[in-house]
Give the backbone structure.
Amino acid sequence: MSTLPFYNAVADDFDSVNQLIIRQLHSRVPLVEKIGNYIINAGGKRLRPLVVLLSARACGLSDERQHSLAAIIEFLHTATLLHDDVVDISDQRRGRSTANAKWGNAPSVLVGDFLYSRAFEMMVEMGDMRIMQVLANATNVIAEGEVLQLTKVRDAGTDEATYMEVIRSKTAMLFEASTHSAGILAGANEEQIDALRQYGNALGIAFQLIDDVLDYTGDAEAMGKNVGDDLAEGKPTLPLIYTMREGTAEQAQKVRQAIQKGGIEDITAIQQAVRECGALDYTSQLARTHIDEAVKLLQVLPPSVYRDSLEQLAKFAIERRF
């Protein structure tokens, strides 16, 4: 697992989650297991199962149900990645070939469907209707967010409110569902459950905002994707939206054209524009505001190493370089 300190508190839990994931990936169709194992083992930070484990432990849960919930969340996330890569026609993720690049679009979509359905089988086994309601709603909202983002590709008229709706749906929703369902599972009181729900939402928004900054400033090798990937796909992210709104006429026009045509031919000029007009600082500061709120929300939880780890994770979200 990662060497980042906030993983240490639940290192043993992570081992149990990984073993459970391997068991639940079993299928009588070998290609399902092969693709499932390939993408599950692709690396990544496993942040969503991490916040499940930390949130559940912070509320006093110590049994194996949290491992099932963490595995469910990881399956839901992995399914969205498989589908995302097909929609975005991506051939690289986390520094290696995507499943659709290796096996084709059809198997990737169908294995994504398998992971969704396996996740819901596991939810049924848990037998908690409130958790099922949270996670069913989350998968619905995520799908809506994907479609909304798709309709805004190469749309230089996208405003900040629409962008925020996309990232709340696409990215923050699964973080929110992770912490929300963990609080429910642990039997926390309603104030704590709602605080965890809001913490997950704020954390997810901040992570995406910093991802959008790193798309222009990050190290491609460390990130496992190319700098400018979102621009290449014609996605109007907040640094670009801010530049069109607040930059000079020349900067705004350059960004508008880049979004409309896609590609990264003008990436150097765009990097300069988003930096010089303050778009990266604006986006980073908005992420910081969400993280400050997330940390305050944690104060309703009893002091513990798990609460401390949730706070460390929040601070990592805005300090990271990958």
